[in-house]
Amino acid sequence: MLNFNDQTLPCPERLTLSQLLASQGVDASTVATAVNGAFVPRSQRETTLLRPGDTVLTFQAIVGG
């Protein structure tokens, strides 16, 4: 199991961050992502493998200053 935005979900073997977002209906182009508190760039989502116990968060990217 893994934690995705405060939901507990199954964590099949070889699940990537990109696959998780798609399975949850998340428009990956509109969110930033973090796994276990570490930011994951969009370019690395396809290769970021998730493991049982991981915590995945999505959030709106803030631009500007």
TrEMBL record:
Listed InterPro entries: Beta-grasp_dom_sf, Mopterin_synth/thiamin_S_b, Thi_S, ThiS/MoaD-like
SUPFAM superfamilies: MoaD/ThiS (SSF54285)
Domain of life, per lineage: Bacteria
Database matches in Pfam families: ThiS (PF02597)
Protein known as: Thiamine biosynthesis protein ThiS
Gene3D superfamilies: 3.10.20.30
Organism: Hydrogenophaga electricum
